[in-house]
Specification:
The protein is an all-alpha fold. Helices cover about 50% and strands about 0% of the residues. The protein has one domain. Helix 2 crosses helix 4.
């Protein structure tokens, strides 16, 4: 069985909401861009007991249209793609910094240990 990588609690909450309320990747992205709290979406959801409420996916789409004046985000990315892009960006930014540190301060590089010359050593100069 493949072991899943752990997500940050913020992103894990969105994955749970997506499964619980059957939201698409686009709807999750819309809700995130609107700044919605994933823990509060349960109160907005239609539980079939309140027929005057609009279903949650449609409610998110209506709010997105009202706020951004467009129907869908330009580029839809799933939570997994967001995590992968974030890790890739971290690695890209980390490598140049390491190279800059090494180039700026070569004294921090590992230097070989200078041992005393055994021919000139006397009993008093032995470090043990």
């Amino acid at each position: 069985m493949a072991q899943q990588k752990k997500l940050s609690p913020k992103l894990q909450a969105w994955v749970d909401v997506q499964k619980r309320f059957h939201l698409s990747d686009a709807q999750v992205q819309m809700a995130r861009e609107l700044g919605m709290n994933p823990k509060k979406l349960g109160g907005m959801a239609d539980h079939r007991q309140e027929p005057w409420k609009v279903p949650l996916p449609q409610h998110i789409e209506d709010l997105y249209l009202k706020h951004f004046k467009k129907e869908r985000p330009d580029k839809v990315r799933s939570i997994e793609q967001v995590v992968a892009d974030k890790k890739r960006n971290q690695l890209e930014h980390e490598e140049p910094r390491c190279q800059q540190r090494e180039a700026a301060n070569p004294d921090n590089a590992i230097q070989p240990l200078a041992l005393p010359d055994p021919e000139k050593a006397t009993d008093d100069s032995i470090p043990f």
